[in-house]
Design brief:
67 residues; 0% strand
Length: 67
């Protein structure tokens, strides 16, 4: 039962982050970055994915799309 609740909550959070990103809202980018910081706790694969994503965001100036 606990696993089902965990997966359900995770899916809901992912849905909210996805809607924020696709709607190009500033809060969507902030939630996405928070999501990536949480993903960093998943050593080693989560850390690698989060670092690569942060690098992509920084190098391609993605923040400009959310102003």
């Amino acid at each position: 039962m606990g696993f089902v609740v965990f997966v359900g909550v995770n899916m809901l959070i992912s849905l909210i982050v996805g809607v924020g990103i696709l709607s190009r809202r500033r809060w969507g980018l902030a939630l996405f970055k928070g999501y990536l910081y949480l993903l960093m706790l998943g050593v080693p694969i989560g850390t690698y994915i989060a670092q690569k994503t942060f690098l992509y965001i920084r190098e391609n100036h993605v923040e400009r799309l959310y102003r």
